[in-house]
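hey so u asked for the seq, here:
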Amino acid sequence: MDLLEISLGGLQFTAAQVFFAAVALPLALLANATVALIRVSRARARAAEEALRRQRDFDERIGELARNGTELAGRVQAFAEAVGSRQADLARHVSERLDAVGTRVGQGLETQSRTTGDHLAKLNERLAVIDAAQAKLTGLTQEVVGLKDILANKQARGAFGQGRMEAIVKDGLPPSAYEFQYTLSNRTRPDCIIRLPGDDRVLVIDAKFPLEAFSALKAADSDDLRKQALARVRNDIGKHVRDIRERYFLPGETQDLAVLFVPSESVYADLAEHFDDLVQRAHNARVIIVSPSLLMMAIQVMQTIVRDARVRDQVHDIQREVQLLVQDVGRLRARVTKLDTHFRLAQEDVAAITISTEKITRRGDKIEQIDVAQEGGDVARLVPPRLAAAE
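ran it, structure tokens below
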């Protein structure tokens, strides 16, 4: 029996070892259970002692709270008596303070009322100013809306550009120097032609407003849309330049230079800033792109040229009139000389008459000095022979 062996998981045990293990295992479990029961009993004993200690502490605190409650009741009673004694004084002070506060509040309300009235009057004045400004703003808004409607419509936008160009041209040139909607020999009608002095050929001005392409360029929020808008601007401006080149360049009838008028400073600024190559191509095609301010400057230069030409045209008339004036002065000089001769002869005649008059006066004086009381023979002898013959 001692030789009996048991193999478990590669380990070999004898029968005696297995027997002792079977007996020792229940004993170990029983010992563990005993130890656990002892520990539980001790824990319960400690818990009972702790509960008893807590109960004694609770009783002591309850007693202390009772004592404190009695003391607090005494203090509350004393406080109530003190409050009752001071309540009358407090009521009197409150009444006096309320009266003083009422007086001050009344004065403050009166002052505030006057101040508020003044402020309301000023506010009414400002509201009147604001109403007037609002009315003007409303009118301006309507004008802006109207301008927006005009710019939204291609035909109205074209009429707007045409009207702006006509206003600039009319303001700077005489009526004989320009003409609107002039018909050329090829049956085309540019917006405006200008006649320069000394040249039978006319200068063509055509107004264009490529707003849609520039609006699309400003509204582009991606690279693809921006490229499309840039291409559209180039196509639109290039088409306008080609149209002017093909329609309005007639040898012997129009100038070798034409003007493309863009009636918007912002559009022209974008064109000059972002499309310099396009502007250069237009210049190479002898088409000058101008904005309203540049057109005004060009019109002022043309006005100076027209004025100088008019002065040159009038020089011949002025010279002819000066020659006639010189001839009139010569005739006047001859007549004055002749009149001076007449005056000199008349002066000589007057001098002779004056001498004769003086002689007659002296003879009369002598006659008055003769004594007329003498006899007649004597008187007859005193009479001059000429007077005797006359008698």
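The mean pLDDT is 77. The domain at 162-314 is CATH 3.40.1350 (Trna Endonuclease; Chain: A, domain 1).
lmk if thats what u needed
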